[in-house]
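Job type: complex structure
Entries:
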Amino acid sequence: MLGDKKIIFSGVQPSGNLTIGNYLGAIKNFSAFSEEYKCFYCVVDMHAITVRQVAADLRRRTYETLALYIACGLDPEKNTLFVQSHVPAHAELGWVLDCHTMFGELSRMTQFKDKSAKHADNINAGLFTYPALMAADILLYQTDLVPVGIDQKQHLELSRDIAQRFNGIYGDTFTVPEPYIAKSGMKIMSLAEPLSKMSKSDTNQNAVVYILDGKDDIIRKFKRAVTDSGSEIRMSDDKPGINNLMTIYSCFTGKSFDDIEREFEGKGYGDFKLAVGEVCADALTPVREKFNALMNDKAYLEEIMKKGADEAAYCARKTMSKVKRKLGFVAL
Ligand code: AQP
């Protein structure tokens, strides 16, 4: 709690151009919390370097991710928006939590398995201990609730285990966070391989719809989306392509799957794909326009970064001094 408000923390890696998976699974849902909760939204650049980055791209994407937070509706006056590497306590607590996280636990993380298969030439220690740094991000702010896409649920459960373990050894130190997986935040899958998650680092540009794609590109990508045999628009275990498109359509329109099935009864995949492309493009146009205006004002974005880092560091310091005292580190 901060004052009488519960605390929310979430983050996005500036590891690529953000996708509609990041948007529907996470960012779109963030602004609803601003009034009721004290919210910290972070651009987690330190997580991004678990995979090799080009420095100039990482720097640009850090600005872009912050601008996208704001363009997607996060008011910097009502939310603390900041960059992870601007608050060194993340790294500091990350190390402490590394020492309280078990090798076996980290070995079981599916994201580690997926990413080490994808980046076989760079299976670094940071990729392995990523979830302990994520726990540090969350626990540093005594977070009550973490809005994330369902793909991050396993990491969040580990954060809870780490918090409970630490509290068990040293006495009450951390709030044990709860995940918040929005109904609309179901896992958005690749348009080319609907059994794999849509990821910003996918090299197949046609598999991924980016938040900043123009209308023509969005419609083209949906038209080319892989669908399944048959022709009916209906949710079914053997139709992962159509399930994914129905999920996306439902997220953008708020319509239930039953409504969507009725709406497209007797119509074919072609009509449906076009409709999904159109609702997606229409929803993202205002975001893109606001983003472009923000990216023309770097000084404003830097002001937000600075203000956010000061606010975050203030809260982080309180937790860090408690942690150091409990561990037995000598205070000067
Ligand atoms: N496909 C998705 N469906 C629903 N939610 C998703 N999220 C990501 N992809 C989907 C949610 O977006 C938030 C930020 O994710 P992240 O940047 O921390 O990293 P990630 O989950 O590893 O996302 P990517 O796009 O797959 O990045 P890369 O390719 O760099 O690994 C999280 O809340 C996540 O759940």
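Summary: DSSP finds 13 helices and five strands in the chain. Residues 17 and 83 are 17 Å apart (CA to CA).
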